Amino acid sequence: MNQVVVLPVFIALCFALMMFFFKKHRFAHHIGLLGLGAILAASVWLLYGSYDEGILVAQLGGWRPPYGISFQADVFSSLINVFIAILAICAYVFSMDEIKSYRAHAGYYSAMFTLYAGANGVLFAGDIFNMYVWIEVLVVSSFLLLSMGQDKKQITGALPYVLLNFLGSMFILSTIALLYGLTGALNIAQISIELASVPDVATATFAAMFIVGIGIKSAIFPLFFWLPESYHRPPAAVSAFFAGVVTKVGVCALFKLFGLVFFREMPYFKDILVWIGILTMVTGVLGAVALYDIRRLLSYHIISQIGYMIFGLALFGVKGLSAAIFFIIHNIIAKSNLFFIGAELKRLGGSYNLQKTRALYRAYPFMSILFFISAYSLAGIPPLSGFWGKLGLAQAGIEEGEYFGVAVCFGVGLLTTYSMTKVWILGFWECSDKTCHLTQKYHLKRNVPIFILSAISLYLGLFPTLVLDLSTLAAEQLLSPELYIQKILGGAQ
Amino acid sequence: MSTLIIRVAAKYLIAVILLYSLFLLLRGHNNPGGGFVGGLAAAIAWSMFGIVYKESVTKRLFLTPSKISALGVFVMLLSGVMGLFGGGQFFSGIWVQIGGIALGTPLIFDIGVYLTVFGAVVNIVTYFEESL
Q1: Do residue B73 and residue A10 have CB atoms under 8 angstroms apart?
Q2: Does B64 touch chain A if contact means CB atoms closer than 8 Å?
Q3: Smallest Cβ distance to B93: which of A3, A13, A61?
Q4: Option in A17, A59, A60 nearest B70 (CB)
Q5: Segments forming the whole domain that contains residue B58
Q6: pLDDT tens figures, B7-56
Q7: Calpha distance A173→A447 (Å, rounded)
Q8: How does residue A492 score in pLDDT terms, banded at 50, 70 and 90?
Q9: DSSP β-bridge partners for residue B97
């Protein structure tokens, strides 16, 4: 059973290779769907296993912890992984329609699989250096996907992304080196024990350096400016997958490190994270309000939503963390779906620019309703999924006495609603002068993923109990490092 | 770069370097060496071939360099799976004694590394050679 932890990464790598060898074959990418289906099955199995038996640990090569590399699946990582797998399938199906053959021949599908393998590795790695390696796998594949196509604009967008991400990697790597020098441990559970005997200054430095390193990758407040420059340039399937996976995985790594390692030692980091969260929320949403290009607008919303997650982490209680985990899940689904719908707006309405595009509602009511669901989920209107995340954050914030932060949450929520309403009015609602006529057909491969994601979004809104319970469980696990220490090092001590 | 001396010498040098790369690969498990260095050495031999004879190396290889790299990763994964079925854990080492020589899955893993590094470096070198 424990070996299943390795399975998603393994399947993803195998299929990446297969896609690479047969990239010129006409039906190669159809076989990839099989792989993604297998990954989803393995992820659900893992979620069930970690729910049923607690944390699952696989020791690679049979080497005992803390010396060997361990892969661990807790409820947190498997829960996130299930939704990433669903998103991966949707992005994959979408790209079967969108991606032109020259991209496929340059290895597009294999890069998608390695990106997924990297994301999985980060989620499941129990060893901090191994986590770094997977972050690199993730980031290098994302470079590939960003710059593929040799479009000049794409390269200009990819350049700041590449440079800043290397800087971030350098931060992470040097932190790991320092940490190893001081504690002699790389296993997260072991580090959690050893840090008790390390001077506070050093621990604070490590935590701060991790925030900077991972913060560059997940676009938190002062380090986000590469994101709106690069995320809107690649094809929509890539943007959507990036929006749902690359930045979110960074946040997940931060959750894992702070939950398991740093928070017990460093309570005063709470204030720093609260302020990072607040500033990220506000700057992101202000950027979004000012813009009319739907893809850039959505890129700014990514930043603003990252702010909510950091705020949830900063509250550092089961309630805040579980709300943040629910929020990540809701975001993986809703935000990526909006990127897909943005691409449809371009295809059906004629432009990414809201002022130029034709309004879709009369000709494509179905698509408009799907947009409505996702957009207002993001804004957090009551029966939809974003509401539960924000409600949880607000409750936890009030309990913790972070009244200002909660007020900012509501303000940003209002601005998000405003910005989504702007998209709805300009892009979808009927305006007499630029109504869209039924010229394009619905494409099944594009619209089924959108439908599925919207349905999941609706499900998360109407029946949130299951996922809320799971995320509460995940938060409880994350906040009790003893469980990990016992499970991973239990035999060794 | 293609004087007579170097063209004659290259033939022998390439053979020696390739042999040496295999030596490094096989020596690697317990002593300094291993798949990475071995792959680099082999890549040096092939790049030398390309530079001296002004002939595209890729035509002489059984697969394109990038596919050799991918094959290498595949071999590495294979060694992991063999560990899973033979030792219960992914990447467990399985060893067999054949005539006093211990052979095991770490060697297969190293061969994978060798192929990956070789393919990647040859790919980079040929790319630069062709664009020069």
Answers
A1: no
A2: no
A3: A61
A4: A17
A5: 4-131
A6: 888 889 999 999 999 999 988 777 888 889 999 999 999 888 888 887 76
A7: 41
A8: very low
A9: B102
